[in-house]
Specification:
Length: 158
């Protein structure tokens, strides 16, 4: 089966990769682009570990074909930090111990950023709703919610 040439923007950088027509964007990002922050948890769109934004919309990359990324903009967890300077969400996840094993963390960070991009001052209920597509089996959700609240507060001060 011949591969398809995909030209896209990932974390602000124009890139090209060749992928089989039936390959998921999750696998393309990991295997072709080398962005291993995107995790496979379930492969069915139920856990959120593979969350990215595609043209600014939060999606599970396991449910999108790599070829569908052609001409589109992708943001992954690798694009959150600015060089050595962590994004406020990353800082607060560390400060509030909102991570343990790390499998779900990139997806939570992307989902939280997508939420805060839309709503810079969410209520606890809005945070829980915005993160509802992401599952964590280690930390419980209270630390994650508190970290997102703290990051939102910090980001509003800028």
């Amino acid at each position: 089966m011949p591969g398809l040439l995909v030209s896209t923007t990932v974390n602000g950088d124009a890139i090209e990769f060749v992928c089989p027509q039936d390959e998921t964007l999750l696998d393309s990002l990991r295997d072709r682009v080398g962005l291993t922050g995107v995790k496979e948890g379930c492969g069915t769109g139920d856990c959120g570990a593979c969350s990215i934004t595609l043209d600014g919309r939060l999606v599970c990359s396991c449910l999108v074909l790599g070829a569908e990324a052609n001409g589109r903009e992708i943001e992954t967890v690798e694009g959150l930090a600015d060089g050595d300077k962590l994004h406020p969400l990353q800082d607060k996840f560390i400060e509030y111990a909102a991570l343990q094993c790390g499998i779900c963390t990139p997806g939570f960070l992307i989902a939280a950023k997508a939420l805060l991009d839309r709503n810079p001052n969410p209520t606890v209920e809005e945070i829980r709703y915005g993160l509802a597509g992401n599952l964590c089996r280690c930390t419980g959700y209270d630390k994650i919610v508190r970290a997102v609240q703290a990051a939102a507060k910090q980001m509003r001060k800028k």
